[in-house]
Design goal:
Number of strands: 4
Mean pLDDT: 80
Shape: globular
Oligomer: single chain
């Protein structure tokens, strides 16, 4: 503990790191303030009264509000949050598989990346322009007395423009954090939005179980164990031994036997994306059937997000999407060609086709437990709900929110540790197995 406190002090001693952290906290504060600025003409009392009455009963509404940091239920200028940009990024990534022009831009290095970022921002504006009127007409208008009595064309134009500007401002804040601050800005904004709901959810859970303090302690222990397991899986890699070519320095070769390195294959290479894809698809039956109790057994079952049919189908979709997204992220043929060009090889495996087949078989084997883990994480909130954990607090026991929080915290710790190690200081997590200490030849994929 003493060493940990000393390492915290070391962070403040590094001027550049201190400035980056302060800038990051300042921009996050601006983002949080923006989530409470309501659209022009909206009745704040009606919105607050509606939020207190529902108290997280609508599952879909609670999820959207969590990812927007409360801006969704606040009918704020940042009601859409950062999610339109995430959707645009996913679309551009998928287009990179099918559209040759996008593939060409991806292979053009920095110039291509700038072009893709420009198209992503344009697509974000288009998505916002479509989602903003839908949000106002479907959600905001359902709150009694929230919107102005006379909704003129000028008001609609102003409201939609504010929402589009709010989302793009959130994107700008995220990019500034990435460039000038610490951590991945977009991911940090999502994480802050999720964590902002934790105190109120935990207080509600304590109030609901004030006569059973032992249950609260047990829930905290279980939550810590789930987080620990999530960290182990997120950080888990299958190290494939590599032999690289000898390096020639001057007139002699360094290391007669060749340098021994490792090719790390992540157990969870797809990250959180399969859960996002699966939940996006499952949102459709939730929206259609959640209110149709007389629409048949199948419709009612799929409309219940805590039911066994819904969660079974969700788990199946996550397993399928995990294999799909892993195939996008990892290209065994390209990896084999890169190894061959660099003079590296896997011991006992011939370079070329055999290496590609070997890597593909390894990826297929380690993807199965990774996909099953993601499926389990996704249905943990429903298991928590079945254990009488209050609505809202249950989402912190699994699902997308837990994976995002763990991934972002680990990524931020890696960057802080890199600053400390570059200045010959002990790392923030000295003695731990944080992947910030990985060798230079290891590869990883972020959120």
């Amino acid at each position: 503990m003493k060493r940990f406190i000393q390492n915290i002090k070391n962070i403040w001693k590094v001027e550049e790191l201190r400035k980056r952290i302060l800038l990051t906290l300042s921009l996050i504060l601006i983002y949080r303030i923006g989530s409470f600025i309501m659209l022009p003409g909206v009745n704040a009392e009606a919105v607050l009264a509606n939020a207190s009455q529902k108290n997280g009963d609508n599952v879909l509404e609670s999820l959207l509000s969590m990812f927007s940091g409360g801006g969704f239920t606040n009918v704020s200028i940042m009601a859409l949050g950062i999610m339109p940009y995430i959707s645009a990024s996913i679309i551009m990534q998928l287009l990179g598989m099918a559209v040759p022009a996008v593939q060409k831009m991806q292979n053009e290095g920095e110039s291509g990346r700038k072009q893709i970022n420009t198209y992503t921002r344009i697509l974000t504006i288009i998505i916002c322009a479509v989602q903003a009127p839908s949000y106002i007409s479907l959600y905001a208008s359902s709150i009694p007395g929230a919107l102005p009595a006379e909704q003129t064309m000028l008001w609609w134009t102003t409201a939609v423009s504010c929402m589009v500007a709010g989302s793009m401002f959130a994107v700008w804040l995220g990019e500034r954090i990435t460039d000038k601050g610490i951590g991945n800005g977009i991911s940090l904004l999502i994480t802050v939005g999720i964590l902002s709901r934790l105190p109120s959810s935990f207080i509600a859970e304590m109030a609901a179980n004030k006569d059973f303090p032992l249950k609260i302690v047990l829930e905290i222990i279980v939550f810590m164990l789930i987080v620990l397991g999530t960290i182990l899986i997120v950080q888990g890699v299958r190290k494939v031994p590599l032999n690289t070519a000898k390096r020639v320095v001057g007139a002699r070769a360094v290391d007669e036997q060749g340098a021994r390195n490792y090719l790390p294959l992540k157990v969870n290479a797809s990250g959180v994306m399969p859960i996002i894809f699966a939940q996006a698809i499952m949102t459709i039956p939730v929206m259609i059937f959640s209110q149709q109790k007389d629409g048949g057994v199948i419709q009612y079952a799929l409309g219940d997000t805590h039911g066994i049919p819904y969660n079974a189908l969700l788990a199946l979709l996550i397993i399928v999407f995990t294999y799909f997204y892993t195939a996008i992220m990892i290209n065994p043929r390209k990896m084999a060609d890169d190894l061959k060009r660099s003079g590296g090889f896997i011991p006992g495996v011939r370079p070329g086709d055999e290496t590609a087949e070997y890597i593909d078989s390894l990826v297929s084997r380690i993807t199965l437990p990774g996909s099953m883990f993601l499926a389990l994480i996704a249905i943990l909130p429903s298991i928590a709900y079945a254990c009488n954990i209050t609505s809202g607090f249950e989402y912190f026991f699994g699902g997308t929110s837990l994976l995002i929080m763990v991934g972002v915290v680990l990524d931020t710790l890696q960057q802080i540790e890199s600053y400390l190690l570059n200045r010959h200081m002990d790392g923030l997590m000295e003695g731990s197995r944080v992947r910030g200490r990985r060798s230079i030849n290891e590869m990883s994929s972020g959120f």
